[in-house]
Structures are given as C-alpha cells and as structure tokens.
Design brief:
The chain contains 12 helices and 12 strands. Helix 7 links the parallel strand 8 and strand 9. The longest helix has 19 residues. The chain is globular, with a radius of gyration of 20 Å. Bound molecules: 3-isopropylmalic acid and magnesium ion. 3-isopropylmalic acid (IPM) binds next to helix 4.
C-alpha cells in the first residue's frame, strides 16, 4: 500500500526516539512491500524558535494531508510556564485540529520487565489494560482567565462528547474482556455527574454484555496500584486520564515503553509515546525508543489497517527485550545498558 505519514519530532528526546520509529517504519515498508512517504515538519518549541508558533500552518497542513502523524514529544525549560507562547499549546491544538478525541493508552507488562518495576512483581503479573482518555475537551480546553489576584480554568463536557468517548471504550471492551471502569469525581464535580449518567446510558443501551463500573478518581488511583489486573478498559476525562496514565505506566515498568494512539471518527490518527521531552536526558542518546516504536505499531494497525505488520513490530520489541536488550530506564541492577540507537538496532535485528 501507499501511505503518507507526517513526522513531527518536537523537542528534547523527541527527535532521538522518533528517529528510531522512522527506522522501524522504513524497515516495515521494505519488508512488507509498502510505500510510506514521510514528511518531517517542525513542531513544539523547535517551531517556536523557527517560526514563533508551536504549530506553524505548513506543519498543520502536512498533518491534515497525511494518513497518520507520528509525534515525539514537546516542551522544555526554554519555553516554561511564563513564556508567552508555549509548546504545549501546539500539542493541544494539533489534537483538536485533527479531531482525535480518543486517546488510547494500552498498558501491558512484558513478563521480562516484571522485576524492573518499582512495584512488587507479584502484583504486576498479568497486567493488561487500556486507558481511553478523552483528549479534546474538559479543563484543558475550557475558557481560561487571569487577573493579578485570581485565575480560572473552566471544565465543560457535553453529552455528545461523553457519548462518543464511551462508545470507543465500549467497542474496545467488546473485543477484550468486556469490562469497563469509568473514572470520575461525581461526588464533587457537575461534569462528572453528567459523565456518569451518559456513560451508564450508552453502555447499558448500546453494549449489552459489557459491564460498567464507576469509580471515583482518588479511589481509582489507589486500586490501580493495589489490584491492577482487575482492570480491562478504563474510560475517563482528559485531566484524570493524563494523571492516571503516568501512574499506570509504572505497571509496565517505565514511562519509556508506553505508546499511545489518538483517534477520531476517521482513520487518521496521531501516534505518540506517552512520555514527555525529558530535557534532563535530551541529546545524550540514552532515551528509550520503545514507546515510540510501539506507537508506530499502533499507527500501522489503526490508521493503515496493517495488523500483521503491527504485530511484527510488537513481536520484535518483545523479542529484543526477552533477549536482554535494555535502555537505562528498564534495566535491572547490574545489567548492561544500551543507548537509544543500539536499542533500535536490537529491535530491527529481531524483525529480521
Ligand atoms: C500527555 C502530556 C500532555 C498532556 C502535556 C505535554 C500537555 O502530559 O500527553 O500526557 O497533558 O496531555
Ligand atoms: Mg501526561
């Protein structure tokens, strides 16, 4: 097949991990006979420096014209909270412009990594869950205001927004273990009370055979660590999803290994590792490329419909890690450690 992929590497370790993702994409193209045309475009802080805008028009146009977008990470101390233009604004805008309201963050423990997590291995065995994070609404996108003495961020959700994200969770659950936990703060927030009602109605009426449990976000934060294998599909609003997925990453050993897919109603999607730009290790060649490479697998599966190719990439990651390949973030004490490119090499070698 032919496909156009926009590549927006961004800041910090973004370019380093995306380079490995691109090598994997290129290898998949060659091995399976696909023609992927890749277009790199500036994004985030790098684009602010270049053009004064974290999402310049030609970058957005390239993303809108592509079948899928591969994104690294954005942000850094150079463009901190007090700068007038911030990279994060570009990230929020691209999610909104592409209409990718459903952010899938699968968390699966690779058995070979059970001893490299901060959490006791016996709690982790069998962890296999997926977060469905609402990505284009809520407090991230509400009206903001600031005076000398106060600041406001408005959180809004519409019925239609909750319906469509619940449907994504419902369809996923049907293909998995048929169990959804919806996370909210309905004892305090009006948006959460709406969320709970709508989620309840959609699952009951449209997804018979799928169970739905509601959980308050504080309690969910605890249960996620205490009994993670009880979870299958978790659906939640934008900010709760942001926070809980970083916590959830610890169940898979490291933020560095987790991919994400952001999807809308069409096939086009935005694919990014869930980790950030990690300015502290940027440029050192030690970042873990696995989150990006697994995001490439999600891109192949969800936007290009290439399930076999996606599975081949995932199998290569598992094989490389089973064979002992480790970047610093997932290495057990005393094990030798690979840099970003060497980790990419190990995964490419496993692809054959
Ligand atoms: C994420 C990130 C972003 C978010 C930041 C960088 C704006 O933390 O993708 O989880 O909060 O959505
Ligand atoms: Mg986050």
């Amino acid at each position: 097949m032919k496909a156009k992929i926009a590549v927006i590497a961004g800041d910090g370790i973004g370019p380093e991990v995306v380079a490995e993702g691109v090598r994997v994409l290129t290898r998949v193209g060659r091995k399976f006979g696909h023609e992927f045309s890749l277009e790199a475009a500036p994004f985030g802080g790098a684009a602010i420096d270049l053009a004064g805008d974290p999402l310049p028009k030609h970058t957005l146009d390239a993303c809108l014209a592509a079948d899928a977008v591969l994104l690294g990470a954005i942000g850094g101390p150079k463009w901190g909270p007090s700068s007038p233009v911030r990279p994060e604004q570009g990230l929020l805008r691209i999610r909104r412009e592409l209409g990718v309201y459903a952010n899938l963050r699968p968390i699966k423990l690779l058995p070979a990594l059970r001893d490299s997590s901060a959490i006791k291995p016996e709690i982790l065995d069998g962890v296999d869950l997926v977060f469905v994070r609402e990505l284009t609404g809520g407090i991230y996108f509400g009206e903001k205001s600031r005076t000398a003495t106060q600041a406001t961020d408005v959180c809004t959700y519409t019925v239609a927004e909750v319906e469509r994200i619940t449907r994504v969770a419902g369809r996923l659950a049907q293909a998995r273990r048929r169990k959804i936990v919806s996370i909210d703060k309905s004892n305090v927030l009006e948006t959460s009370r709406l969320w709970r009602e709508v989620a309840e109605r959609v699952v009951k009426s449209e997804f018979p055979g799928v169970s739905l449990e509601h959980m308050l976000v504080d309690s969910a934060a605890m249960h996620l660590i205490r009994r993670p294998t009880d979870f299958d599909v978790i659906v939640t609003e934008n900010m709760f999803g942001d926070i809980l997925t970083d916590e959830g990453a610890m169940l898979a050993s490291s933020l560095g290994v987790l991919p994400s897919a952001s999807l809308g109603d069409g096939r086009r999607g935005l694919y990014e590792p869930i980790h950030g730009s990690a300015p502290d290790i940027a440029g050192k060649g030690i970042a873990n490329p696995v989150g990006t490479i697994l995001s490439v697998a999600l891109l192949l599966r969800h936007s290009l419909g290439l399930g076999t190719e996606a599975a081949a990439v995932e199998a290569a990651v598992t094989a490389a890690i089973d064979a002992g390949a480790r970047t610093a973030d997932i290495a057990e004490k005393g094990r030798s450690v690979l840099g970003t490119t060497a980790m990419g090499d190990a995964i490419l070698a496993a692809m054959g």
